[in-house]
Amino acid sequence: MNGFIHSTESFGTVDGPGVRFVVFLQGCPMRCQYCHNPDTWKMHSGSVRSAQSLIREYERNQAFYTKGGITVTGGEALMQLDFLLELFTLAKQKGIHTCLDTSGITYRPVESDYNRKLDELMAVTDLVMLDIKHIDPQAHKELTGHDNGGILAFARYLAQKNVPVWIRHVVVPGITDDPGALTRLGQFIGSLSNVKALDVLPYHIMGTTKYRELDIPYPLEGVPPATREQAMDAKKIILTAFWQVRRGKQ
Ligand code: SF4
């Protein structure tokens, strides 16, 4: 089976444990205002490649990946579920550590063929990196174009399946740094038994040139990048709430 691939990166160091082969899939239904990859949004574009060819590309540098593996990201990787399932199944047959980086936006908590395939995918997925962009449904909708009901349900689904998860949250000044919302985010992820790490990242403006090239107005024009200190402060608030819930459960 072929997939629509935006690009690959041979030596990724921020997309899961160790040094990783990172595959960026094409296509995303979200429109996050701070997205720095608007060139991945379009479905059915990019290069058309087989899962086998990506595994071969991995194998060319596999000596570097002994503590790493493959990460598939996007765009939204779950938009190409069949392809992803084939790629991760092949990877697991070869003993490769697999990580899915996703927004969880495609998930709906219903009986469906899609969810049955998702169950199969989770059986060959070692780690999920899940972005929670805002805990408040309305604020999430303003930020991304979608509410977060399916995403939070996906987080609970991963907990039920006991799939290890790293949570990511981007701090955008004035938009995703409200202490009350950060506390609720911490309480939510504290209720999940499978969260292994929390990454809180400062918003940056490195993607703005891509918007100019694509002739798309940049939605956060004038919003300053977040500092590392702002990200650290946000992380402290999230973790305080997280541990309150965790300790209450012990
Ligand atoms: S989910 Fe990721 S790729 Fe899609 S719009 Fe948001 S930041 Fe961009």
Secondary structure topology:
Layout: E1 2-12, E2 20-25, E3 47-50, H1 51-60, E4 69-73, H2 81-93, E5 98-102, H3 113-123, E6 127-131, H4 137-144, H5 149-161, E7 165-171, H6 179-190, E8 195-202, H7 208-214, H8 228-249
Parallel strand pairs: 2-4, 4-5, 5-6, 6-7, 7-8
Antiparallel strand pairs: 1-2, 1-3
Helix pairs in contact: 1-2, 2-3, 6-8
The structure holds iron/sulfur cluster.
Say how many strands there are.
Answer: 8
- Oligomer state of the chains in this structure: single chain
Characterize the main sheet.
8 strands, mixed
Percent strand equals 15-25%
Which strand order does the major sheet show? 3-1-2-4-5-6-7-8
Shape: globular
Overall mean confidence score, pLDDT: 97
Please mark out the parts with pLDDT under 50 across 5 or more consecutive residues, or reply none: none
SSE string, helices as H and strands as E: EEEHEHEHEHHEHEHH
The secondary structure category is alpha/beta
Mind telling me the C-alpha Rg? 18 Å
Bound molecules: iron/sulfur cluster
Helix count, DSSP H or I runs of 4 or more residues: 8
Helix content: 25-40%
Q: What is the first-to-last residue Cα distance?
A: 46 Å
